[in-house]
Amino acid sequence: MVMLARILTTTSTTPILAAQIPSPTNDDDAACYVNLTSIASTASSFLSQGQHALTAASSLIATASAPATPLQRSLLIPPASVASVLSPLDGRTEVNKFICIGMNYVDHCLEQNVEVPTVPLVFSKFGSCIVGPSDPIPRYGPDHNNNVGIGGGDDDDDAPTHAATTKEIQQSKTVTSKLDYEVELGIVISSTVPRFTSPSEAIQYIGGYTVVHDVSARDLQLECNGGQWLLGKCGDGYAPLGPVITTLDEFVTDDSSSKEYGGADNLQISCRLTRNNETTTVQSSTTKNLVFTTPEIVSYLSKFVTLHAGDVIATGTPPGVGCFRKPEPLWLMDGDLVECEIEGIGVIRNEVVSCLEGEGGEEDKSSSSDVNATSVMEIVPSEIGPLSGTTREQRLKGSVAIVTGGARGLGYGIASNLAVEGAALVVLLDINQSEIDEAVAQLTEEIGVKNNAKFVGFACDVTNTEQVASTVRHIATISPTGRIDILVQSAGVVGQTNLKTHEVQPSNFDLVMSVNVKGIFNGCQAVIPYMLKQKYGRIINIASIAGKEGNAGMLAYSTSKAAVIGLTKTIGKEYAFDGITCNAIAPAVVRTKMVADMPEAQVTYMTDKIPMKRCGKVEEIAALACYIASEDAGFTTGFCWDATGGRSVY
User: For this UniProt entry, which residues form the secretion signal (predicted)?
Assistant: First the structure.
């Protein structure tokens, strides 16, 4: 179990994804936090990785909870270092859909004397409603001796002067005089939910639960022009959320009943209101009174819309809301403190204030929404050199990309540039999981946070056809859009060099051909069905000048890269009418780790043929790859792009 939080520390300017844990020393009641940015930069990214992320987080938490060590001190964030706790999800960037379910507690229906619904009652809020677990709720109302008018215009002599739906709204900062509270269990989706998912399958797409305070302006919702639900539910600050997302494994056991209810079969849920130093429990129930279980809700919604990682579903509120209290309604007033609590998740505490000048949704407490990185420091291995990281237009905004060989070299550099140019999700594939994890952590820290991009990585042997296919299928399930837009294939090996043909070992020849050619084939075959379905795709295969000209002493490598060029030309022609382009890049020698491992004589042999008399740079190839991956290059397919410093002019 992991309790995901998003915090600002006293030394950080951007939010940090962390796990909330009790103090390891047990010397105070304040929560501590464990830095999880080596796994993911956001909660939605973490949840999309499933069991892999849970296992990695459990390991970090165990380390941070151990007796004091340098590693523990680097991971553990003590209470004194926490500047503020934000909503675990950034409503502006992570929450695509914020869906709400009405009338979903049997006892809430009874208090209104209405029939229990037979299908869920669905409405929505905006992601911009979301604020943190201790942020204020703005009322924007008149003084408590007046009401806000709900319409009527100039002809309504009885309308109060602070009418919220007449022309007076232009001169007055008044919105509601009937602000109400609702505590709700929030579902957080972990990965793309296929349409028409059954209730028995829906549980696998629930990443965890959080506390939602569904704030409502009842006069707008229920009275204005027959009921302005959108305005009544979607005001800025109308959805405090947090303090954490508790992952689903905390709630679901092997018991079949537990799975049927999504683990939310009997959670205590309550809301308390403190006014004039007196605290009253205004809502108290249990999730056993839910009309529709959490898997049933997810299944029902999947009939109509596609849910994605980070989407939130508020599952309804128990009885006791202010508008139905007897003998008089109970409306929120300035200075009220509302506490919403759910068992196994925690408490959010929000004070009602008169207004928040000039704010929309959660405060800009960080610069995380700045998508243009102006400097990038040491994001690639030292032998490659830093990328420039200059401001780029967002040509690839929202796209989903896979990069093989992504843990180092060209793949690493291209993955970085894809994110800088707007890719929403970049998946690194390589052979060594520890190297992938290191690359993902570094890219996330230096690139992902600044550009609102998510990096994940998986170990995958590109020579294994079924492993490549299953990995691509998994990537499609975690894709925020369900799409795979870009495939860059840079995984490759050089093999033995400085050998003439009669000296080459057949086993080494087979190895090079398997990685460099069969690996490319496997990747193309796995992603093309997804690209055909969406009628769009960009495939970029990294070839080499050796494939065009042949390099003496590099038989296997030259042969494999020539095959890649031929494969690329064929695929480019086969799918030219389907919105899919397939191109290759043929660089001359580029200063990567693979090149650094070559004998110096071999490198000198190659650079001597280059008119510029130098190796290419990773950032030069990465910039070219991003252009080819963009819509700007849509009329070019089956082409082998040159990047040889003048060596090749054909």
Answer: 1-18
User: Percentage of the chain surpassing pLDDT 90?
Assistant: 63
Sequence-distant (6+) residues with CB within 8 A of 244 are 3, 4, 5, 20, 88, 210, 345, 346
DSSP labels, 606-645: HHTT-TT-S-B-HHHHHHHHHHHHSGGGTT--S-EEEEST
Q: Where are the beta strands (DSSP E) in 72-159?
A: 76-77, 82-86, 98-102, 121-125, 130-131, 137-138
Question: Dihedral sign, CA of 91, 95, 99, 105?
Answer: negative
Q: Angle, nearest 10°, between helix axes 433-443 and 409-420?
A: 30
Pair 409, 437: CB distance under 8 Å: no
Q: Say how far residue 89 (Cα) sits from the centre of its chain.
A: 9
pLDDT, the chain, mean? 86
Confidence of residue 364 (pLDDT cuts 50, 70, 90): very low
| Rg of the chain taking only CA atoms, in angstroms | 28
Alpha helix stretches (DSSP H) within 445-554: 449-451, 465-478, 506-513, 519-534, 545-549
How many CB atoms within 10 Å of residue 109? 18
Residue 276 falls in which region: left (phi positive, over 0), alpha (psi -120 to 50) or beta? left
Give the mean model confidence (pLDDT) for residues 125-137.
96
Q: What is the separation, in whole angstroms, between the first and last Cα of the chain?
A: 57
pLDDT given at position 8 = 92
- Residue pointed to by tokens 């989903």: 400
Judged against a pLDDT cut of 50, whether residue 567 lies above it is answered with: yes
Mode of pairing for the β-strands spanning 239-247 and 32-35: unpaired
* Number of neighbours of residue 58 by Cβ within 10 angstroms: 13
Residue 157: predicted pLDDT = 45
The encoded tokens of residue 589 equal 């020698």
Q: Residue 450: how many CA atoms within 13 Å on its side-chain side? A: 21
Q: Which residues contact 627 (CB under 8 A, 6 or more apart)?
A: 395, 633
CB 6 within 8 A of CB 33: no
CB neighbours of 279 closer than 8 A, spacing ≥ 6?
Answer: 272, 273
Per-range mean pLDDT, top range of 168-172, 545-549, 597-601, 609-613:
545-549
Name the token pair of 498. Answer: 């400085």
CA angle, residues 426, 43, 195, in degrees to nearest 5: 75
Angle at 247 between CA 242 and CA 248, to 5 degrees: 125
Q: Which candidate, 366, 361, 368, places its Cα nearest to that of 453?
A: 368
The pair phi, psi for residue 117, each rounded to 5°, is -65, 150
**C-alpha span between 402 and 425 (Å, rounded):** 8
392: left (phi over 0), alpha (psi -120 to 50) or beta: beta
Cβ–Cβ < 8 Å for 627, 421: no
The neighbour count for residue 219, using CB atoms within 10 Å, is 27
Give the whole-angstrom CA distance, residue 122 versus residue 112: 18
Q: How far apart are CA 191 and CA 311, in angstroms?
A: 9
- Peptide bond connecting 327 to the previous residue in cis, omega within 30 degrees of 0: yes
Name beta bridge partners: 33: 20, 77
Tokens, residue 184: 């709700």
* b/e code 556-577 from CB counts within 10 Å (16+ = b): bbbbbbbbbbebbbebbeebee
Phi and psi at residue 391, to the nearest 5°: -60, 130
